[in-house]
Design a protein that fits this description.
The complex is a heterodimer. Chain A has seven helices and ten strands. Chain A is of the alpha/beta class. Chain B has a four-stranded antiparallel sheet.
Amino acid sequence: MELIEIKNCYKVYNNGVTAIADLNLKIDKGEFVFVIGASGSGKSTLIKMLYREEKPTNGSVFVGGINVAKLRNAKVFKLRRKLGIVFQDFKLLPKLTVFENVAFALESIGIQKKEIRPKVIKALENVGLKDKMRSFPNQLSGGEQQRVCIARAMVNEPKLLICDEPTGNLDPDISKEIVDILDKINKESGTTIIMATHDRDIVNKMKKRVLLLQNGVLVSDDKKGSYKVHEGN
Amino acid sequence: MKAIRILSRGIRDAFKSVIRNFSLSTAAITCSSITLILVAVAMIISYNVNHITNDLEKELTIVVYLKQTCAEEQKEEFKNKLEMMKNNNVEEYKYKSKDEWKLEMKEYSDTFSTALDYLDTNPLLDSVTIYVKDVNLLKETTDEIKQLDYVESADYGEGMAENLVKVFDIIEKVTIIIVLALVLVTAFLIGNTIRLTIFSRRNEIEIMRLVGASNTSIRLPFLFEGLFLGILGSIIPILITVYGYVLLYDHFNGYLFTQIIRLTEPFNFILNVSGILLVIGAIIGMFGSYHAVRKYLKI
């Protein structure tokens, strides 16, 4: 069954730039998908449409049965509760500890206090940061901060994890570590993962489904793709 | 249960924010206090002017003197006409015959009494005092009565009293406009303060939006913050109204300049004004912050 179904989707920004043109795409539950492409190819737009930071200009984007194109601003939270988002710049709150940062996500959606603590600890255990839960974000390395971000995205046990260049700010070894965590999450809990990236080493090593975007057009959809294959394009 | 949790979290966060941004909150509270004091003053003036105008309007009457030659049946006719005019502008009338006037004047002074005794006929005139419903139609009603041929004269307090009512009417309208303008200014000030506290928390709001917090639960703390600021801002104006107006009233003994201009009694009146101030403070605080948060809920 498809978790994501995109039909005839167009996105034209107000300044006239066409970021996505006639995109048709299906992603099943439990898949691990890389979205690659040069800067300005529309991969960030695609990712942003999945959690409705951007709305498609035309066509439909279904995520878990919700049509993002028709989702009103006041109802966006219903979509976001079904998914977790990992950002390139982490978006952690500097004044809160690691524990509080993860708990913040649950508090914000009104989960009961006594339920919060075990969930947060479990999420931090999964990313191997339980012993750092009293630290503040600025006391952690980049890789550790990204792991906190993953823990926060996963704490509510979403069916879909959206990663917008999660390794963009990290060195290759740490990047590998982050992708291994994502792979583990994908395998253990069956969470669908969509990851936009520039990192050819990771894409080549993982042998997962790869979507290649060029100037807003999906030029290839390869079940066991790699970056090198597309280099000639 | 969930609603209560979100509500209590909103109140807690609002308190925290008011205390954390102490200087900013103080600025907002001071600003709204000052504007609300002006609102209170304007309200007191407006209410009193209204009160005084009503009092004065009750004093405005038309005095009609009937001609010496007026026959009994014409007097009856006039009374009937006034009865009919009750459908129009006549509220009530009092008839006083020349004999009654004579008796009254005799009691008033001995000189008059002796002078009147020397005359065979009564030189005085029958009179009717007419109270009207609408003071603004005073002139028209008077003119209508003047046209009757058995009427010697019909007069109302042309000039002074009439002009006074007009002036008060203008004062009342102006104060209402001032009150409205001040209310808007206060809403703007509180909104601006909240905007600053929101600006310092915009990352927090962004993350709340991204992890799936509903707009209501994001907005709630700021609404409460606006509410607190508005209520805190109305405390000083309320105290000033209560103590200030009672002092003022006692100082003037309830009259302004002359016995005619009576001030409104302080009790109930100041309680109403205080209540209105509190409600204005609370509403504009919430309205201001509601407006300020909106921009940040579109991520």
